[in-house]
C-alpha cells in the first residue's frame, strides 16, 4: 500500500501513539506490569527480520502476494501460536489487534519490522501471568465438586474468544478440574493439588524469565509458516541444536522436537535411535514431563523453551530418561503415559534394512523392512568399497530371499519418514528396468527428472509395498513409482503427503569487524516440489494405497493436509515411462476383492475395526466430562483399547496394528495378497526363475 508522504507521517505518528497506549491495556498498570518485564526487539533481531523478508520473497517456492490477505494470515497464525485454546486473550484484545495490525503486518514484513509482534507478545505474557496466579490461588483455597455433570471443550481452536474476564476465569476453573482428574487417573504419585501448584509456579517463573529471543522466535515462526509449514527461522542457538539433531552427534533419545503452543511435540522419531528402537514414542506425541533415571522427579515442561527441553532430555550414553507423554493416538486426550528410554547414539546398524521369511499355509513370503533411506555419504565420497546404503543392503537381502525360495516380497515402508533421495531412486531401480522415478520442479518452473539408469532388474516377482500415515517424502516417491509402473500393489493407509524440498540458507551480510558472520541465524525454506512420473504431486495428498487397511494413526492430526499453510496438490506433464501389463486395473480389482473377502472372515480384524471406530468417536469428541464418574469411564475405555491393540514386551516395545497375540495383522494380510499374485501364471514361480512381467508403452 502506497501513501502520500504527509499521510504516511500522520499515520506513523498515530500508529506510534496507539501502540504506546495499547502496550499498557486498560486492565494493566505500570505497577502491575513493570517496564522491565516488557520485551523489545534487539538491533540484531530487527536486522535478521529484514533478511528473512527478503529471502522469503526471493527464494521460496510459493510466490505469496504481499498484501492485506498475507497480513491477516500472519496475525491469525501468530494468535494461534500464542493462544490456540482461546484461554488467554479476551475478545477486546483480538479486536484491537485486528484493528491495529490486521492490514499492517504486510507493511511491517516488507520493511523487516517486528514491533507489532512484540506488542502482542507482551500482552500474551501479561495474560499468561494472570492465569498462572489465578490457578495457584484457586488450588490454595477452592474446593471442587466432581459429582456435577460439567464438561470442558478441549478443541477450542475455533471457539469464540472470551468476552469478559469472568468468562475467562470460568474456563480456567474448568481447566483446573480437568487437570486434577487427569493427574488422578494417569497414575501420578502424590497429591494432585501440590503437583499442579508446583507446575503453575514453575510456569510463572518461566514467564518472568522470557526474553526478546522468545518473542522473536514465535513471531518469526508465525511469519515463515504462513508461506508453508516447513519453512522456519533458526536463531544461532536454534541452528546449533538443529545441526546436532542432523549430525546425531550427542546422545539422547533420537527424536526431533518442536514447540506447538505450550507443548513440546515429537516432530520426528529418528530411525536407528533409542526412541525408534523402543517403539514407545510416535510423531505427534506431546511430551509434558521429563525425569532423570529410574526414580528421579518428573519435571513439568509445559511452556518451556524447546532448547531447554532438549538440554534436559540429552544425557550420558546408557543413562535412563523418563518421559511423560500425551499420546497422539488419543487425540491429546486421555491419561498421560510415562515411557522409559535409554539414551544412546543413532547407529547405522539399527537403521539398516531387515529381512523376515513368513510361512503361511506351507508357502514362503519374504518381508523387507526399511525404516529409513540411509547412506554413508562420506564412504561414498571416498569410494570405499564397503560403504553402507539402503539399496546395497536390500540387494543382498533380495538375493538371500530368492535363495530361500520365497514366492513374493513385501517391502515394509511403514513409519519410514524418508532420508536420502538417491537411495529411494536406487531402491526403486531394483524392481524396475531403467526409467524415470521422480520429477522435481523449482520455483522458477525448471524441471529435473531423477532416473534409474540401470536397465537390469534384480527382482521381477510379486511385490507389495506397505505404507501408513508416517510414510513420508522419499518413501512416498518409491511407493508412487511402484504404483505408477504397476510393478506391485501398495497396501495400507494414505501416506503423509510431504512432497516438498527444503534448503537451508545462511543469513549473510556485508563483512563487519564487530559481528560474527553467522550471528543472524539461518532460514530453512521450501524451494521445490516432488512429482510422480504421472505428473501428479505427492504433496498434500500423499499416495493412496491400492488396498486400504484402516490405521490407528489419527489422520486428523498427522499428515501434510493437517497444516493450514501446506502447499497444494498440483500436476505437471508426465514423464515417458513403461508400465507393466500384468497388474492392470482388472487384476488389481481382483486382488482387492480377494483381500476384502479375507478381511471380512477374520474375526480379529472385525474386532479391530470395531474398537478403532470407537476410538475415532472418542477422538472426535470436543467435550470431556468433568464429573469423576464420567471421566473415569472414558479413561477406562481408551486404556482398554490401547491394551488390546498394542504390545508391551519385556523390553518395553509397542507396535501398532498388532493382534493381541503379537502378530502383525496388516503384514499377514499383505503376505496373502502376494501369495494371490504368485498364484497367477504371470507371477514368479518358487525359486529364482524369472517371471514374464510384460511392459506396455505409455
From TrEMBL:
<keyword id="KW-0732">Signal</keyword>
<dbReference type="Pfam" id="PF03572">
    <property type="entry name" value="Peptidase_S41"/>
</dbReference>
<feature type="compositionally biased region" description="Basic and acidic residues">
    <location>
        <begin position="660"/>
        <end position="671"/>
    </location>
</feature>
<dbReference type="InterPro" id="IPR001478">
    <property type="entry name" value="PDZ"/>
</dbReference>
<dbReference type="Pfam" id="PF17804">
    <property type="entry name" value="TSP_NTD"/>
</dbReference>
<protein>
    <submittedName>
        <fullName>Tail-specific protease</fullName>
    </submittedName>
</protein>
<dbReference type="InterPro" id="IPR036034">
    <property type="entry name" value="PDZ_sf"/>
</dbReference>
<dbReference type="InterPro" id="IPR029045">
    <property type="entry name" value="ClpP/crotonase-like_dom_sf"/>
</dbReference>
<feature type="domain" description="PDZ">
    <location>
        <begin position="243"/>
        <end position="320"/>
    </location>
</feature>
<keyword id="KW-0645">Protease</keyword>
<keyword id="KW-0720">Serine protease</keyword>
<dbReference type="GO" id="GO:0007165">
    <property type="term" value="P:signal transduction"/>
</dbReference>
<keyword id="KW-0378">Hydrolase</keyword>
<feature type="region of interest" description="Disordered">
    <location>
        <begin position="644"/>
        <end position="698"/>
    </location>
</feature>
<dbReference type="GO" id="GO:0030288">
    <property type="term" value="C:outer membrane-bounded periplasmic space"/>
</dbReference>
<dbReference type="Pfam" id="PF11818">
    <property type="entry name" value="DUF3340"/>
</dbReference>
<dbReference type="GO" id="GO:0004175">
    <property type="term" value="F:endopeptidase activity"/>
</dbReference>
<comment type="similarity">
    <text>Belongs to the peptidase S41A family.</text>
</comment>
<dbReference type="GO" id="GO:0008236">
    <property type="term" value="F:serine-type peptidase activity"/>
</dbReference>
<dbReference type="InterPro" id="IPR040573">
    <property type="entry name" value="TSP_N"/>
</dbReference>
<dbReference type="InterPro" id="IPR004447">
    <property type="entry name" value="Peptidase_S41A"/>
</dbReference>
<dbReference type="GO" id="GO:0006508">
    <property type="term" value="P:proteolysis"/>
</dbReference>
<dbReference type="Pfam" id="PF00595">
    <property type="entry name" value="PDZ"/>
</dbReference>
<feature type="signal peptide">
    <location>
        <begin position="1"/>
        <end position="28"/>
    </location>
</feature>
<dbReference type="InterPro" id="IPR020992">
    <property type="entry name" value="Tail_Prtase_C"/>
</dbReference>
<dbReference type="InterPro" id="IPR005151">
    <property type="entry name" value="Tail-specific_protease"/>
</dbReference>
Amino acid at each position: 500500500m502506497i501513501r502520500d508522504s504527509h499521510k504516511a507521517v500522520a499515520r506513523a505518528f498515530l500508529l506510534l501513539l496507539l501502540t504506546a497506549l495499547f502496550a499498557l491495556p486498560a486492565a494493566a498498570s505500570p505497577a502491575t506490569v513493570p517496564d522491565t518485564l516488557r520485551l523489545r526487539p534487539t538491533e540484531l533481531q530487527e536486522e535478521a527480520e529484514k533478511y528473512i523478508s527478503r529471502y522469503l520473497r526471493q527464494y521460496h517456492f510459493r510466490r505469496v502476494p504481499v498484501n492485506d490477505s498475507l497480513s491477516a494470515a500472519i496475525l491469525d497464525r501468530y494468535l494461534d501460536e500464542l493462544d490456540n485454546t482461546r484461554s488467554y486473550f479476551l475478545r477486546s484484545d483480538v479486536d484491537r489487534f485486528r484493528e491495529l495490525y490486521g492490514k499492517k503486518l504486510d507493511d511491517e514484513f516488507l520493511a523487516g519490522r517486528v514491533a507489532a509482534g512484540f506488542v502482542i507478545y507482551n500482552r500474551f505474557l501479561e495474560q499468561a501471568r494472570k492465569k498462572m496466579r489465578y490457578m495457584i490461588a484457586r488450588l490454595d483455597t477452592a474446593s471442587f465438586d466432581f459429582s456435577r455433570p460439567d464438561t470442558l471443550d478441549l478443541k477450542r481452536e475455533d471457539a469464540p474468544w472470551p468476552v469478559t474476564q469472568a468468562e475467562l476465569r470460568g474456563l480456567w476453573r474448568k481447566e483446573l478440574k480437568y487437570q486434577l482428574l487427569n493427574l488422578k487417573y494417569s497414575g501420578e504419585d502424590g497429591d494432585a493439588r501440590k503437583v499442579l501448584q508446583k507446575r503453575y509456579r514453575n510456569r510463572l517463573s518461566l514467564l518472568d524469565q522470557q526474553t526478546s529471543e522468545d518473542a522473536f522466535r514465535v513471531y518469526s515462526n508465525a511469519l515463515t509458516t504462513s508461506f508453508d509449514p516447513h519453512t522456519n527461522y533458526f536463531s544461532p542457538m536454534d541452528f546449533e541444536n538443529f545441526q546436532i539433531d542432523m549430525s546425531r552427534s550427542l546422545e539422547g533419545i533420537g527424536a526431533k522436537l518442536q514447540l506447538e503452543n505450550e507443548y513440546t511435540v515429537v516432530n520426528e522419531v529418528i530411525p536407528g535411535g533409542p526412541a525408534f528402537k523402543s517403539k514407545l514414542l510416535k510423531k505427534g506425541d506431546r511430551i509434558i514431563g521429563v525425569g532423570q533415571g529410574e526414580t528421579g522427579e518428573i519435571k513439568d515442561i509445559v511452556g518451556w523453551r524447546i532448547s531447554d527441553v532438549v538440554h534436559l532430555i540429552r544425557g550420558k550414553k546408557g543413562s535412563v530418561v523418563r518421559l511423560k507423554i500425551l499420546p497422539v493416538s488419543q487425540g491429546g486426550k486421555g491419561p498421560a503415559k510415562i515411557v522409559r528410554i535409554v539414551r544412546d547414539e543413532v547407529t547405522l546398524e539399527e537403521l539398516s534394512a531387515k529381512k523376515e521369511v513368513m510361512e503361511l499355509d506351507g508357502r514362503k513370503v519374504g518381508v523387507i523392512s526399511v525404516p529409513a533411506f540411509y547412506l554413508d555419504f562420506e564412504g561414498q565420497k571416498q569410494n570405499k568399497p564397503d560403504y553402507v546404503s539402503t539399496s546395497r543392503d536390500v540387494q543382498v537381502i533380495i538375493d538371500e530371499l530368492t535363495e530361500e525360495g520365497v514366492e513374493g516380497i513385501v517391502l515394509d515402508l511403514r513409519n519410514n519418514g524418508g532420508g536420502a533421495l538417491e537411495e529411494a531412486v536406487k531402491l526403486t531401480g531394483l524392481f524396475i528396468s531403467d526409467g524415470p522415478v521422480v520429477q522435481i520442479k523449482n520455483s522458477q518452473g525448471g524441471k529435473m527428472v531423477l532416473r534409474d539408469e540401470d536397465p537390469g532388474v534384480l527382482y521381477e516377482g510379486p511385490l507389495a509395498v506397505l505404507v501408513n500415515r508416517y510414510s513420508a517424502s522419499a518413501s512416498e516417491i518409491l511407493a508412487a513409482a511402484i504404483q505408477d509402473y504397476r510393478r506391485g500393489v501398495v497396501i495400507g493407509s494414505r501416506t503423509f503427503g510431504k512432497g516438498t524440498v527444503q534448503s537451508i540458507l545462511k543469513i549473510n551480510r556485508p563483512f563487519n569487524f564487530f559481528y560474527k558472520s553467522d550471528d543472524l541465524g539461518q532460514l530453512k525454506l521450501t524451494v521445490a516440489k516432488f512429482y510422480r512420473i504421472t505428473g501428479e504431486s505427492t504433496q498434500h495428498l500423499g499416495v493412496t494405497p491400492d488396498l486400504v487397511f484402516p490405521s490407528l494413526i489419527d489422520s486428523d492430526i498427522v499428515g501434510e493436509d493437517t497444516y493450514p499453510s501446506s502447499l497444494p496438490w498440483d500436476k505437471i506433464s508426465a514423464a515417458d515411462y513403461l508400465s507393466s501389463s500384468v497388474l492392470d486395473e482388472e487384476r488389481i480389482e481382483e486382488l482387492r476383492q480377494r483381500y476384502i473377502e479375507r478381511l471380512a472372515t477374520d474375526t480379529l480384524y472385525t474386532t479391530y475395526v470395531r474398537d478403532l471406530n470407537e476410538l475415532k468417536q472418542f477422538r472426535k469428541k470436543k467435550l470431556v466430562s468433568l464429573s469423576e464418574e464420567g471421566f473415569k469411564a472414558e479413561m477406562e475405555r481408551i486404556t482398554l483399547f490401547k491394551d488390546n491393540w498394542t504390545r508391551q514386551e519385556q523390553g518395553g516395545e509397542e507396535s501398532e496394528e498388532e493382534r493381541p497375540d503379537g502378530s502383525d495383522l496388516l503384514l499377514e494380510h499383505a503376505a496373502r495378497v502376494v501369495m494371490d499374485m504368485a498364484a497367477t501364471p504371470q507371477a514368479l514361480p518358487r525359486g529364482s526363475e524369472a517371471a514374464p512381467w510384460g511392459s506396455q508403452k505409455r
